[in-house]
Amino acid sequence: MNPNMQGKGEDYLQGEWQQDSTISQKQLMTYSLYHFKFTCDSFFIQQRTFSKVNFGSDSCMNAGHWAEYIRGTYIQKQDTLRLKGDFCNADYSLKIDPGCFRYGVYEEVFKITQKTDSLLQLSGTSSVVPINIRLIKRLTCHIKPL
Q1: Are the C-beta atoms of 68 and 86 separated by less than 8 Å?
Q2: 131-141 burial, b if ≥16 CB within 10 A, otherwise e?
Q3: Which backbone phi and psi does 29 adopt, to 5 degrees?
């Protein structure tokens, strides 16, 4: 049975977190910057990608700049943060049509290192470049029924 209430999540994660730059981004052909929002046990991600390489039609790739959106739930065990969710539209409604970018299930596992109260480092399994995010807005979890 699934619970009928949202989970509490991790207190220290509650809030909006922003990645401002990535290591050697001027030398990279393609890189992404992230905006995370953690509220209770849920997450929302805006992933902005910048590319010097044209991967597809310019109507999709917008001259090398595009965004993808993801929502879902997370769990943390020790230093491992597991995100599981779905690719979404910009309003975080479920993305059904593949359109230009990824759709369907999103799963990622990060090693999370807390540098300070307002600075985290996420080391993902799908990239060798760590994601350094800073807290831009603290939120409080208000558990809601599902």
Answers
A1: no
A2: bbbebeeeeeb
A3: -75, -35
Q: Give, as one character, the DSSP assignment of residue 129.
A: S
Question: Is the Cβ–Cβ distance between 126 and 107 less than 8 Å?
Answer: no
1-48: per-residue pLDDT in tens? 666 788 999 999 999 999 999 888 888 888 999 999 999 999 999 999
Other CB atoms within a 10 A radius of the CB of residue 3 amount to 9
How do residues 42-97 score in pLDDT, each as one tens digit? Answer: 999 999 999 888 766 567 777 788 899 999 999 999 999 999 999 999 998 988 88
Give, as one character, the DSSP assignment of residue 36. Answer: E
> CB of 74 within 8 A of CB of 44?
no
Six-digit token string for 50: 């910048």
Q: Is the pTM of this model over 0.85?
A: yes
Helix runs in the chain, H state only? 58-61
Cβ neighbours of residue 77 closer than 8 Å, sequence gap 6 or more? none
